[in-house]
């Protein structure tokens, strides 16, 4: 690995951490948004839908720049965070996680929304007539029945977060050990003469991570959907 | 415990304006599809917000649009059995049955084992709904509703999706339920057979309005209700007691007007039965006929006749005090001078009474839990 070994492992570990927290932290919001878009009728639904999908159509660099404007040291949210917690998230791994979460959000919401739309609302009605209050119905009927879709959305979001590059490098740069995720590392090493073996390692490792994530989710989803279909 | 419903609701191309009371027992909402039956039960369950309504069970006001009262569905304590069962596919039969148990509060609830016994669910408890037949699913759905300690049970065409064999399998369970629980039941159906077997009270609906309502035997034999029932399905119900089982495969039943011989009914002597006789299976004669293959000849008096636009006449007869409907042609009615007060004989072929037409009420001494 020509001395790039530690940096490679650092980048992989960081990417996993960033992607994990990006998905874990945004999943509740993703479920709520997916459910709202599938089931509720409210003013501004079209706007919300557009906003959720915006990162999908904007150039990632633009999303990163907007994040920088908002969360940078001079940005309004950045200053608020500094005042509250004594530090912002720009150029930190938490910032990378936020950028990844925002970029992955549309994929996650889309999968969850489809899963909720596929649930027969008459089952939820039936639960209501048995005396279950709406929140309980959500927790015991809607969530379990949507579980395969939620899982699919989370895995998709995880893969997207692992691979996020444009918004991340614009927002948090590429600081080794802090914000240099696998894609940033690949990009950086490509600028360095003689680092091609390291690039190949990174590519192979990220492929392995992506494939095993896919395989695990496939196995879990199959078991879940068998249970959901009542077999 | 009784239910009182008044409601008005407009849907595109359909206006519902109905009011009725449901005393304890089984009240059948009866009428053709599109008569507004499901709209009414949905309003009672709170799944539909009617334009104007007042729904009261016992002394609880579930909904009163004038007073601005609206109880959400989950606080109504109304057990709803849907046409398509709607079991939770991700839960076992047992978990489906107990789903509502945690919300019953202090209301007395039927013991789990008792409901499982009455509905014959013991062998299904650990199965998954996906592995059940249509009839089994409906039985689980009924049990699930019962175990939520309802003030009222709503059954929306619970047998409509089943074939005759499955219907024959479930009807006895429903009869047991009727005789077994104190919970009033609102039963939606467009099948005269089911209504005749189960209902104690009938509310006949037509195009969103109540056509007639009252005790089941009266409404079913009321020529005015024929519009809701359909002329081919119209029929009346005779109540009788099994007298004897004959060796030639016939069962003898004593009714008010005499004896009926019907194809074998699986009931002991002394059991009370309800027999539905379709109006189109009844012949009328002015003199007691002789040399006839039909075994059942009951003396009767014409109480009313009703002529429609077609060639038929619906004749309501009193046979020993019980009401009987006969459908004959206008031509015969004129030729035989079938008018109010005329004495005649009603002839019923034994084999025209099908197995589904006979209900056994309170199967006398027998094993009951």
Description of the structure:
- The complex is a heterodimer of chains A (231) and B (369).
- Chain A has 10 helices and no strands.
- Chain A has 231 residues and is mainly alpha-helical.
- The relative contact order of chain A is 0.17.
- The mean pLDDT of chain A is 90.
- Chain B is of the alpha+beta class and 369 residues long.
- Chain B has 2 domains: 3-230, Rossmann fold, CATH 3.40.50; 236-361, OB fold (Dihydrolipoamide Acetyltransferase, E2P), CATH 2.40.50.100.
- Chain B has a 6-stranded mixed β-sheet, sandwiched between helices. A 5-stranded antiparallel β-sheet of chain B has the order 2-1-4-5-6, with helices on one face. Chain B has a 5-stranded antiparallel β-sheet with strand order 14-13-12-15-21.
- The longest helix of chain B is centred in the middle third of the chain and has 17 residues, at 164-180.
- Classes of the chains: A mainly alpha (231), B alpha+beta (369).
List keywords for this structure.
heterodimer; A: 231 residues; mainly alpha; MetI-like fold; 10 helices; B: 369 residues; Rossmann fold; OB fold (Dihydrolipoamide Acetyltransferase, E2P); 6-stranded mixed β-sheet; 5-stranded antiparallel β-sheet; 21 strands; 37% strand
- End-to-end CA span of chain A: 50 Å
Rg calculated over all Cα atoms of chain A: 20 Å
Structure summary, number of beta strands of chain A: 0
Order of helices and strands of chain B: EEEHEEEEHHHEHEHEEHHEEEEEEEEHEE
CATH topology of the largest domain in chain B: Rossmann fold
List the helices and strands and how they pair.
The complex is a heterodimer of chains A (231) and B (369).
Chain A: H1 5-39, H2 45-57, H3 60-71, H4 76-85, H5 93-117, H6 121-129, H7 134-163, H8 166-172, H9 182-191, H10 196-228
Helix pairs in contact in A: 1-5, 1-7, 2-5, 3-8, 5-7, 5-8, 6-7, 7-10, 9-10
Chain B: E1 3-11, E2 14-22, E3 26-30, H1 37-45, E4 52-57, E5 60-64, E6 69-70, E7 78-81, H2 93-97, H3 112-119, H4 134-146, E8 152-156, H5 164-180, E9 185-189, H6 192-198, E10 201-206, E11 209-215, H7 216-220, H8 226-229, E12 235-245, E13 250-255, E14 258-263, E15 272-278, E16 282-285, E17 296-307, E18 312-319, E19 322-329, H9 330-335, E20 343-348, E21 358-361
Parallel strand pairs in B: 3-9, 3-10, 7-8, 8-9
Antiparallel strand pairs in B: 1-2, 1-4, 4-5, 5-6, 10-11, 12-13, 12-15, 13-14, 15-21, 16-20, 17-18, 17-20, 18-19
């Amino acid at each position: 690995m020509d001395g790039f070994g530690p940096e490679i492992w650092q980048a992989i570990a960081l990417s996993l951490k960033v992607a994990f927290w990006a998905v874990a932290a945004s999943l509740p919001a993703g479920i709520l948004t997916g459910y709202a878009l599938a089931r509720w009728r409210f003013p501004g639904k079209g706007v919300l839908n557009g906003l959720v999908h915006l990162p999908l159509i904007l150039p990632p660099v633009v999303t990163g720049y907007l994040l920088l404007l908002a969360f940078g040291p001079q940005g309004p949210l950045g200053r608020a965070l500094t005042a509250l917690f004594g530090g912002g998230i720009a150029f930190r791994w938490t910032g990378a996680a936020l950028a990844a979460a925002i970029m992955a959000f549309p994929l996650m919401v889309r999968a969850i929304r489809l899963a909720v739309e596929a649930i027969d609302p008459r089952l939820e009605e039936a639960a209501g007539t048995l005396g279950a209050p709406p929140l309980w119905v959500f927790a015991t009927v809607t969530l379990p029945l949507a579980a395969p879709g939620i899982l699919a959305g989370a895995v998709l979001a995880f893969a997207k977060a692992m691979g996020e590059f444009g918004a991340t490098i614009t927002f948090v740069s590429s600081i080794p050990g802090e914000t240099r995720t696998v894609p940033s590392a690949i990009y950086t090493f490509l600028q360095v003469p003689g680092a091609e073996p390291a690039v190949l390692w990174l590519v192979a490792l990220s492929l392995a991570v992506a494939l095993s994530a896919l395989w695990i989710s496939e196995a879990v989803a199959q078991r879940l959907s068998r249970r959901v279909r009542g077999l | 415990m009784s239910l009182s419903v008044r409601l008005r609701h407009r849907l595109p191309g359909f206006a519902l304006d109905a009011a009725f009371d449901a005393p304890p027992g089984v009240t059948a909402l009866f009428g053709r599809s599109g008569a507004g039956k499901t709209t009414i039960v949905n309003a009672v369950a709170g799944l539909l917000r009617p334009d104007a309504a007042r729904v009261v069970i016992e002394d609880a006001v579930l909904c009163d649009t004038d007073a601005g009262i609206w109880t959400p569905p989950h606080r109504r304590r109304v057990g709803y059995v849907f046409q398509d069962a709607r079991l939770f596919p991700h839960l076992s039969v047992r978990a489906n049955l107990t789903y509502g148990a945690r919300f019953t509060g202090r209301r007395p609830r039927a013991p789990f084992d008792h409901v499982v016994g009455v509905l014959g669910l013991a062998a299904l408890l650990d199965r998954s709904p996906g592995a059940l037949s249509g009839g089994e699913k409906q039985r689980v759905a009924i049990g699930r509703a019962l175990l939520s300690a309802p003030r009222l049970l709503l059954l929306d065409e619970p047998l409509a999706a089943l074939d005759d064999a499955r219907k024959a399998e479930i009807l006895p369970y429903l009869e047991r339920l009727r005789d077994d629980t104190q919970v009033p039941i609102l039963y939606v159906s467009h099948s005269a057979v089911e209504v005749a077997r189960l209902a104690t009270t009938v509310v006949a609906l037509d195009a969103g309005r109540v056509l007639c309502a009252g005790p089941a035997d009266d409404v079913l034999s009321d020529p005015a209700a024929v519009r809701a029932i359909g002329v081919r399905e119209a029929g009346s119900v005779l109540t009788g007691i099994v007298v004897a089982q004959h060796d030639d495969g016939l069962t003898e039943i004593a009714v008010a007007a005499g004896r009926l011989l019907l194809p074998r009914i699986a009931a002991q002597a002394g059991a009370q039965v309800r027999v539905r006789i379709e109006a189109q299976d009844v012949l009328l004669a002015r003199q007691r006929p002789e040399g006839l293959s039909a075994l059942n000849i009951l003396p009767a008096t014409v109480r009313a006749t009703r002529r429609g636009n077609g060639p038929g006449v619906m004749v309501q007869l009193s046979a020993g005090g019980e009401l009987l409907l006969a459908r004959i042609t206008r031509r015969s009615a004129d030729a035989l001078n079938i008018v109010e007060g005329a004495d005649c004989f009603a002839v019923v072929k034994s084999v025209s009474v099908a197995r589904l037409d006979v209900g056994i009420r309170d199967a006398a001494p027998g094993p009951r839990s």
